[in-house]
Amino acid sequence: MIPKIIFSDFDGTLTKGTEFTPRFFDILDYSKAHSVPIVIVTGRSLSWAHFLITHFSALDFVIAEGGGVLVRRDENGNPIDEPFVERKNIKHLEVSTKGLLKKFSNISLSADSFGRLTDRAIELSDLLLDIDLFKSVKKFLEKDNINFSTSNVHLNFWSGNVSKYNAVKIFHEKFLSEVSLDECIYFGDSLNDESMFRYFENSVGVSSIKDVLSKLEYRPPIILTGEENDGPDGVYNHLLSLLK
Ligand SMILES: [Mg+2]
């Protein structure tokens, strides 16, 4: 059965490693040919979501910053932002980040923090060099009521209740509630997809998920294997198999 909506992570799922490949366009063509909306749900920043919405007309919605903000097109085709957290959370994060950088003058925000609205990131490589510093930073965030998680490259932090699943749920109720989420599908490959693997009925891990499987408490019910199912190849192969 063809899914009613395709939700998908971006890095490592719709890209092969860090590379865009022609397969990404095959997936967009599938979405158009079968009239299935595709909604990207990514940890990347708001400015990345603007790029995707601006340049790929097959995409009407992108959820970015790990579920912190939705970007959609307005009636003139321009990207419009809808944060899933409140103004006060965005302000709290801003103030807390200033305090953090003042207290720990030897750390800096990740390069892509520049385009972020609802979360910030610190390069993990900087923190792993000094475990005591890492602990102190986490303590500071906890005390300031800031949530955080580590990916394989970043310590991400934010204010408020943010997760990919939380965002998908709100998005669905607001924009596509006539569709049952049980008839939709989610593709992912990493730790920040765990809320989707946990609560979303039909989720699929592309084969590159094997690198983080041991760290996942909740795994997707379908896990693809083999080099031929890495990233977008796995997404595309699985979507084709649903046509049969
Ligand atoms: Mg990923």
Descriptive report:
This protein has about 240 residues and is an alpha/beta fold. The chain folds into 2 domains: about 5-85 and about 160-240, Rossmann fold; about 85-160, Hypothetical Protein Ta0175, Chain: A, domain 2. It is about 35% helix and about 20% strand. The chain has helices at about 20-35, 45-55, 85-105, 125-130, 130-145, 165-175, 195-200, 230-240, and strands spanning about 5-10, 40, 60-65, 70-75, 80-85, 120-125, 145-150, 155-160, 185-190, 205, 220-225. A hairpin with a 3-residue loop joins strand 7 and strand 8 (about 155-160). The mean pLDDT is about 95. Bound molecules: magnesium ion. The site of magnesium ion has 6 residues, from loops. Magnesium ion binds near residues 11, 12, 13, 189 and 190.
| Beta strands, count | 11
Order of helices and strands: EHEHEEEHEHHEEHEHEEH
Q: What ligand species are in this complex?
A: magnesium ion
Write down the CATH topology of the largest domain.
Rossmann fold
Topology:
Blueprint: E1 6-8, H1 22-33, E2 38-41, H2 46-55, E3 61-64, E4 69-73, E5 79-83, H3 87-103, E6 119-123, H4 124-128, H5 131-143, E7 147-150, E8 154-158, H6 164-175, E9 185-188, H7 194-199, E10 203-205, E11 222-223, H8 231-241
Parallel strand pairs: 1-2, 1-9, 2-3, 9-10, 10-11
Antiparallel strand pairs: 3-4, 4-5, 6-8, 7-8
Helix pairs in contact: 1-8
